[in-house]
Structures are given as structure tokens and as C-alpha cells.
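Can't attach files on this board, so I'm pasting raw text. These are the components:
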Amino acid sequence: MNISFTKSGRLKPKPSSEALGFGKLTTDYMFIMDYDAGRGWYDPKIVPYSPIPLDPSTCVLHYGQGIFEGLKAYRSPDGRVLLFRPEENARRLNNSCDRTCIPPLDENDILEAITELVRLEKDWIPSAEGTSLYIRPFIIATDPFLGVHPSRTYMFIIILGPVGNYYPTGINPIKILVEDEYVRAVAGGTGEAKTMGNYAASLKAQDKAEKLGCIQVLWLDGIHRKYVEEVGSMNVFFKIGGKVITPALSGSILPGITRMSSMELLKKHGYGVEERALSIDEILHAHKTGTLEESFGTGTAAVISPIGELLYKGSNYMVNNGAIGPVTSMLYDTLTGIQSGRLPDEFGWTFEVK
Amino acid sequence: MNISFTKSGRLKPKPSSEALGFGKLTTDYMFIMDYDAGRGWYDPKIVPYSPIPLDPSTCVLHYGQGIFEGLKAYRSPDGRVLLFRPEENARRLNNSCDRTCIPPLDENDILEAITELVRLEKDWIPSAEGTSLYIRPFIIATDPFLGVHPSRTYMFIIILGPVGNYYPTGINPIKILVEDEYVRAVAGGTGEAKTMGNYAASLKAQDKAEKLGCIQVLWLDGIHRKYVEEVGSMNVFFKIGGKVITPALSGSILPGITRMSSMELLKKHGYGVEERALSIDEILHAHKTGTLEESFGTGTAAVISPIGELLYKGSNYMVNNGAIGPVTSMLYDTLTGIQSGRLPDEFGWTFEVK
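---
Top answer:
C-alpha cells for the assembled complex are below.
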């Protein structure tokens, strides 16, 4: 690609590592590439971060034709800039495009765009432990037209922002609500794609969970309302009787990159990992018989979130006495260690931005 | 409400009735009201139609937190300006808000905003048969923040556009694909609300239908994959053995205002109307035994769409030999007659903008 560049007249002050939350700050530049049905993807550019003017009839503002990705750039102790399996994000972005009738991109172009923007903004990458530069590629449908039809024009945009821990409390076991009223997704729907509508659909249950003192929702499947699917916007794992179990990708579950990496790490460490249907009854039975050993969520934003307690139909169920279990700790330490360059990368997962 | 007004420096030329499609044109002004968690809904205003600048991290562009409504203003033969049951749209808009954690509006304010804007733009209302002024109220979440959380700020916007027939072919029986791969919605999800994500989720199946020579999709339920739910973005009715049947509102179906009005009209005309689960097998059995008499979709955009043929698992099934049936015709003529003021309104459904 031939990426054009427009210099910003004024750069923002960089924040201190302590002030970082999640998703509040953005950097000085963004990447934009346009699509038109006649021309394909064209005019890749890096321009100053600034508002995007959208016609009030723009497709994405009415019919939600838009998808996104999320990944992070880390600064290693020896000063290198590392991405974590960005080719997987590029591939998933195109899968999300396919589900929502958005024309695919060349995956090399996605990687080049991310790399060029991160390289330009490398001074924004914080170095304190637990911090990183969050990368948000997204695509929005931009036709000014109120018919329900795939847009003929799109914008592919990448924005960046320095982030600290996803949860203000850091890595602490969270309490989650097992949701039996609202449903996130069902096979045949959009649950396995990163479409914007999936997230709007989750807000009501999340709100309910917070009112009940929980941090996240554990989604049950939409058909039987008994098999666990995801936790909040993360994949979920349970360790029962020495085995680690995660729901199989049944068509309504997002294929997480942290999920995939966790499974590979677990196998390497000699744990049996089962990808299969896992019912809430099986989990509660394990709790009753003392074999529910650990539980955690996996996702780019929080990496690994230990689950310390479940709330289901008004009853509370502690997991591992509310403490972080050894497998959860191992995964968190190993993954964040590899991602940030503090541990050797035996898997070839990291990608250096030179 | 005290609606402020900013005059436009230049008005667009009004199109001729023949040039009208659906959703392509917008008028000179729009209504905007803002929301902030501290202030509530505030600053209602009518301003020149113009692009809205959105920060690239704006909530709605990532998590699809947005909802909309659709209704029409008609010019009657005696020059009155008529809305059709706008209070039902206001009520449904608030239901959609509730499902997506958007703060509700005062329904009188919604009606006042629509009325004021339509009154100002009344010269845009076309008068040829089949034409109207389409009204699109919508709400978008505007927080510039990348965490998955309900926004603390919103914009409620109303835009208008003169429209002709929804289908370029006018009121002709359409061929529809009975979709058994993709799912629109499931109970517990967002299917009964007018959220933007529902429409993005429908595009892939719609695209598939078009490639198979169909105009719309007939959705089956996401659990059993056998009960009919909606057709495209309309509700659906089947007349079988003298009885008119429409799927009951099971939690995954949008409660259409044209659907509700059609049922009331049918009852008044002495037809039995059944709201219940209706399987595709029952429909095909009726086809086989010669009792599948009519089928049609109902919605604001197309009002009544006769269905002339079904395509299911590779086989074609004609309905009423592909012709418009008498009940379908009666509903179309009566509804469009009442809406446009050409027929008396015995139900008190029309609302005059004075």
C-alpha cells in the first residue's frame, strides 16, 4: 500500500501510566481507507485524529452495518514494540466482514496499516506493567441511504489509545451473573462475528448484572438456556476435576484469540483441554461435589479474568474460595509475559514493529 | 418543549413525484435533541440538515447502541397532512430504548418533535398515489469511549425524506426465500426491539435471497427452525382455509404497527385472525392440500406486500397462483386509503398535523 500522511499541527500531551483507564484516551493520528463498490478499497491514509462527519442518513447509524477488532501493542523491557498474533485479528476481521456483507480487505493491508500507525505513534505505548497501546480497527457502512441493503461505501478506520487494566480493580476474581433471561446470540445469528450489534444486545444484561453486584454476565445458550457460552465479552473456561473445559465454537461464540492461545498454552503445560458443550448444571454439580476448581474469562482487553463467584437464580456459588487459582495465574503470567516481551516467545506469537 | 430553530441559508429543489425511490432523498431540516446523564434530554432544536461530526471512538460506531423508528406523513386529497398512529411509534421507540439501555423520552415530546418538523417541511410531502414523506426518528449513543458500557450521552434525531414505493416494481407479489441457515433473532435477544443490530444481522440472508431470485427472506425461529417469524423487515400473514394467521409475538418478533392495524381491520371485516405459532410444515401442507390462499407482509415502508411464491430447500411453492389475493388487496386499499385520507378513518388512526 502507498499510505499517504497528513501531519498534525498540534500533538496531545502523553498521559502518565497511573492515569490510564480503558478506552478513554486516543492518540494523535488515525488510519483511514475508503471503499466504493466501483473502486474497491482505496486511498489509505494516516491523518490527524479528528471527528468524522457523517450524513444523518448514513447506513451504520440506522442498520448497524459495522464490525471491529481489538488488539494491543506492548513495549518490552528492552524497548521493542510487540503485537500479539495480529494476523489472527486480520483473519477474524474478514470473517466478520463476510457475515455482515462488508467487502473483505487484503489481510496484508490490514497488518501494514496497523504496523504503520503503531510505528508512527510508538511514543504513546506505555511501559508500566499491565499497560499497553490498545488498537481498534473498525469498519462502518457509509452510504447515505435509508433502504435496508448492504452499503456500497465503507470506511476502514484504525484508532489507538494507551490503556491500563480493563477492570479498575486490576486482576481480582470477579463475581458474575449467570444470565437466564437475556440471550447474547444463537447459532445462525451474528454471535461468532465481531459485529457492533452483538455488543448493544449485551448491555441490558450487563446493566442487570451490575445492579446485582456482579461485574460480568455468564451467557447461556439461546436454545436450551443451559449451556454456558461466553462471559461478558470474553470466552470462558472452567477447571473441573483436573480438566480444563471451554465451550466448543457452536456458531454463537466468538472465536477468541486469547481463548485459542490459552488452549495452546494449557496443552503445552500438560493440561487436558476439552472443547465441548458445558451445562450450568454440570458446573453446579461440580461445585456441590467439590470438583469446581477454577474459572476464568479470556479476552484481549482483560487478557485473563479470574472468576471468583457465580450468581445463578438468586444463589451464590464460590469458585476456589474466591481466590485466583494456579492455572488462571499461570495463564495470566505466561500470556502477559509473552505479550509484553518479559518472557521468551516459544510459540512465535509476537510480531515486532520495527 | 421549547424547540429552537436555525434557518437554512439554501433550500434544496423539491423532486417530482416520478423521481421518488425509497430512502434516497432528505429534506432541508432535521430535529436534534441531546442527552447527558447529568441533565437528561435537553436542547431540542430544528437545524439545517447537515453532517454530524462524530469522534472516531463514538460508542454507536463500535457497539451499535442505537435504535430507530419509521413512519410516514401523507398529503390527503383535500390538502391535510396526516400521520398514521404516531403515538404507537413513540411507545415502541421507548420500548427499544429500554432494551438497549438508552434513557426513555417523554412520548409527548417525541410527537411534538415529529409534528413540528413535518409542519415546517410540509411542502416536501408529495401527493401522488403511493408517495409520502418518510419520517425517521433515531437515537445514537455518542460517548467517545471504547469500554462496552451504556453511553452517558445520546442524540435523538429526526430526518425526513419524500418516498415513492418501497419496491421499484410497486405492489406486485414478491418471491421470498424461506431461510433455514441464518437466524434473525431469538427470544431473550433484541428481535422485538427496533435496534440497529437486527438489521445488520439480516443483510447476509437478504443477499443470499437476492442471489436466488427472491426479493425478501422469510425468517424461521432460531430454536426449532420451523416456525415462521417475519418476512424481511415486515411482519407476515398467511391465509389458510379461510383463516388469517400471523405469528404470535413470542419475544423475537417486532410488534408492527401495520401488523396491529391489519389485524384490527381483518376483525372488523369478519375474518378470523389467529395469532399463534405457525410452522413452515403447516404452510407447505396447506399448499399441498390447496388451502394456502394468500400471504403478505406488513410494514410501514411497503404497507402491504403480497407474497406470490415461496422458495424452501430448493423447491418453489406458488401462493394464489402468484396473484394478489382479495384479503391482501382489501388491506392494502383500506390501509393506504385511511393513511392518505382518501378513505374515512373510522378507527381514529390518523393524526392531523395542522
